[in-house]
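Team,

Forwarding the record for the chain on the shared tracking sheet. I've put the sequence and predicted structure together so nobody has to dig through attachments.
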Amino acid sequence: MYVAVKGGERAIENAHDWLAEERRGDTSVAELTVPQIREQLALAVNRVMAEGSLYDPDLAALAIKQSRGDLIEAIFLIRAYRTTLPRLGASVPVETDRMACIRRVSATFKDAPGGQVLGPTFDYTHRLLDFKLAAEGEVAPAPQAKPERADMPRITEFLNKDGLIQTEARDDTTPPDITRTPMKYPADRATRLQALTRGDEGFVLGLAYSTQRGYARSHAFVGELRIGTVAVEMEIPELGFAIEIGEVELTECETVNQFKGSRTEPPQFTRGYGLTFGQTERKAISMALVDRALRWKELGEDNVGAPAQDEEFVLSHADNIQATGFLEHIKLPHYVDFQSELELIRKLRREAQGDREHREAAE
């Protein structure tokens, strides 16, 4: 749209050059490399991968560098690149119950089978600035042993022994792909979970917080939160079986929610579910809370009018790329539109002035 401005093309080129200069910053300071971002800003990389729907730490780190640390811009870059990639096939569903966990905690069962693994977390830090990190010559900690994949039963399944938690039916049908098929309402749970996984962390967090403050009648406990790597397998028609093609790091959260029962369901615990790329536990927990709030209809609950229960509101506004595009387009030239608005205001003012003069003359 700027090409319509006098000298627009040259102005855009200059803006690009200025952006590159600002992105580089002070040239006396060493340039930040993609491997440094990937290894030392891993949580930012994980968010970009999760909301960009593309698991590639190197590309996510490059996008963060290119965007000057603007994570939504980095997510935009990743999604744009993702559209250029060929689709070679589909993997089989990952088995998260065979996750090589670096973190596995439960807020509901202290003595969880297999033990609780605190893992790398800020939960137990003092939230004080560590000025040693600003000093030269930081000593790297000793590397931790890499966990191996093993049977890791879900903690919430222990409630099933007494029939106290809702049983989730296995669904082997292929879910719709919201990156290729427009979303329709009402949406099924698989579609909602896809949208929440790609949704903006801050937006989903805000909705999840609202459910905790009473806007959805949903009091939750973290039944289990686990972070680790899982195998990705793909079926090869020529071989007749699936082979492992790699592994990805995931965060999975399952919440246990109070449920007093309804006209169709007995009193029991119910679940919320979240699954995201990388170590993104705040997002996974938020996703699980919102997922549970959106399940009010299938559980026969009353809709109390909470924002987190409004499927169309939640799913239509969760995507930060759509939101950013619609919001930021208003800073682009709208000269013709504004001129028409300006002329309308002038006309209304003239008419109002004429009416006022007419009333004064009549008096």
